[in-house]
Amino acid sequence: MHDEFRSILIDADRCTGRMRCLRACPTQAVRVRNGKATLLRDRCIDCGECVRVCPNHAIVPQTSTFSDFSGFNYTIALPSPVFYSQFGKDVRPSAILSALRTIGFDDAYDVASASEAVSIAIQEYLDSSDTPRPLISPFCPAIVRLVQIRYPNLLDHLIPIESPMEIAAREAKQLKMQELGLQEHEIGVIYLTPCPAKMIALKNPPRKKHSYLDGAIPISDIFPNLMRALAHQEKTDGKPEISGLGLGWPIVGGQVACLKAEERIAVAGLTDVMRVFDEIENGKLKDIQYIECHSCPTACVGGSLTVENPYIARGRVLRMVERYGSEPGQDRQKIRTLYQENFFSLAGTIAPSPVQPLDDDISRAIHKMHRRNQIFDTLPKIDCGACGAPTCMTFAADVVKGDANADECVFLAMKTFETISKNLLEVVEKQSRKNRGGPERGTHDA
Amino acid sequence: MDNLFSRSFSIRGKNFQEAGSVSTEIKSILKELGVDPSVIRRVAIATYEAEMNVVMYATEATLTLEVTPKAITIMVDDRGPGIPDIELAMQEGYSTATHEMREMGFGAGMGLPNIRRNSDSFAITSSVGGGTRLIITITIN
Questions:
Q1: With contacts defined as CB-CB under 8 Å, which chain B residues touch A367?
Q2: CA quadruple A150, A154, A156, A162: dihedral positive or negative?
């Protein structure tokens, strides 16, 4: 489990131990040891909250760069629909695709229409399957990881349907293979990603062996080049505009807006997602058919590798949906037929990946929980983080697991220091009295 | 006694805001103890239903969790109106929930039956005007 790919890496040379990541991590996956942040890989869900807060840019997303694709004969950029919201309000999606073709990619392919197709497939799945409700959207890789490590009971609630980026990548590849007579391995398909989490969906795609994507470049890396290209672009290249409700997918509620199920909700931000997941585990929310889930509080437009203010970007997405959303980008009947042919289905299962318990043996785990609570009782309970653990409770657990020493708590150390200094002061005082020839008080000697 | 982990929680009646928090906390304890997820799910459902019964009908209660390597026991002792006819209360669909509770999605008459379904042994005693006591046991292996 420890060699599984994680989408972030901490650069120890840049880390100055300022502990912002320690506090920001929603799954307590960061520890600061010897003044440097380290990652507990089995607890990390790749949400990227740490990337956002690090003042030294020491948390490096493990994304791709242009040069990674030099080995391909043909490259296709697949911009996340978030990309359309990063530029001025009058920049049309089709213009952005055209501009991408001028900055080093051989072609650019829209993902929003795949999102619309996937929405239709989800609707079909909702109408025809009897798997446990509520169904949970599996398109945010951090949410899938969260379910794997914290909510293994909910794995069969994740819809087994391929993500829009995979559908688009597969289509783009097939199209170019036919058109240009190329082999699949000669074509590189590159996602322009709003967050590092998408990298785990590429490296370890859920329910299947290989992704159709060959890499992902941060939106923030492509942005400056594209701005320049857009400035030099001709007004229009005659290509039809991107249309359909799939354009709304990167904002909270964008997925459920495409569905017809009566009971459907959208939840964003890990705190609220976990609250909803707890309710499902308690046997509630069975009336709800579909839950759209995002790890980022403002959904994908708020990903840590975007450029634009997420609220501005959200406004632009809404405007695009208003302008181009009413015109369907997909033929519903055709998608239904494809759905019947399992075009969207994923057959494999997603394995649970639970966080290490206090001990693998339950008797020993019970014993350690007693010890942990005893240690916790001696701690100040102010979660200062000076020991390198995010909370006093996680610190106590680290101590019983042997990953930390109790004396690393500055408050415990201060108490020890207080006792030692009190004793020492008494000795010193006694000595000076003796030297002055004063009366000696023997009662404190014990 | 070293093979026993025990912890008590208090639940206040009518406190809908915190309803479910005990169940969530118990879940996280069991996860840390490495209890099998399918067992945790049954405990979660039983605890949640018991907690909701207290919130909806009783004044207050103490919920005690006991974990041994073999079983999980949940005892709920409430101070409240009690149940006059336990046999009736155990029937699916029977409920004394008010209109307001039903509006909030409760009162389907599935609480107690659901607790029994998810436990390996289940005992209930009650005195009218005094309170109700549930003892729920779910075995681990």
A1: 2-3
A2: negative
Query: Are residues A287 and A182 part of one domain?
Result: yes
Residue numbers of the domain that contains A441: 359-446
Q: What is the DSSP letter of A194?
A: S
ipTM, two decimals: 0.89
Strand partners, A61: A8
- Report how many domains make up chain A: 3
Number of domains in chain B: 1
Domain that holds residue B126: 5-139
- How deeply is B11 buried, as exposed, middle or buried, from its count of CB atoms within 10 A (0-12, 13-18, 19+)? buried
Rounded to a whole number of angstroms, the distance between the first and last alpha carbons of chain B is 20
Q: Answer whether B5 sits within 8 Å of A369, measured CB to CB.
A: yes
* Three-state secondary structure call for residue A276: helix
Give the three-state DSSP class for A313.
helix
CATH of residue A44's domain is 3.30.70.20
How do residues A252-271 score in pLDDT, each as one tens digit? 999 999 998 779 999 999 99
CATH of the domain at A433: 1.10.15.40
Q: Buried b vs exposed e over A363-379: b needs ≥16 C-beta within 10 Å?
A: ebbbbbbeebeebbeeb
| Lowest mean pLDDT segment, chosen from A21-35, A131-145, A232-246, A297-311 | A232-246
Give the pLDDT score at A1: 44
**A282·B23 Cβ contact <8 A:** yes
From A152's Cα to the closest Cα of chain B, the distance in A is 7
Whether residues A213 and A326 share a domain: the answer is: yes
Q: Supply the angle between the helices A332-340 and A112-128 in degrees, to the nearest 10.
A: 60
Together in a domain, A128 and A273: yes
Is the residue at A130 inside a domain? yes
